[in-house]
Amino acid sequence: MNAHLLYLGEGEKFDQGALIAAIKAVEGVHDITEHPTGASLEWHFAYLGDAMIGRISTDLQTISLRGDSLANLKMAFEINARYPGPIHLMDMGYTFDLVLGDYKSFETLLGKVEAAEGS
Length: 119
Known about the structure:
Blueprint: E1 2-7, H1 16-24, E2 29-34, E3 41-47, E4 50-56, E5 62-67, H2 69-82, E6 88-91, E7 97-99, H3 106-118
Antiparallel strand pairs: 1-5, 1-6, 2-3, 3-4, 4-5, 6-7
């Protein structure tokens, strides 16, 4: 299992309405739960046989993605494509901190993450 974190910037909060709309618009998102314990929203996502669970923090400053790496990265890329602002992607091992808007294709992002994790 892998874990990734999405955030806007130090102390910045996501717009809850825009973020939830972005998440719900992604094909493959299911089992959305509002206000589960310790989060403002939780959802599941499946991509090419991989799966993950996403959670928006109650303070709206972070999104945690836990599951298969491919599904985590695809979800991050899709949220960024639908959210009106630059989103950072970081792994929990602090191997990389990327601005998702810098990557125009999912394949390019995937290559960058694989290179960072391999070093």
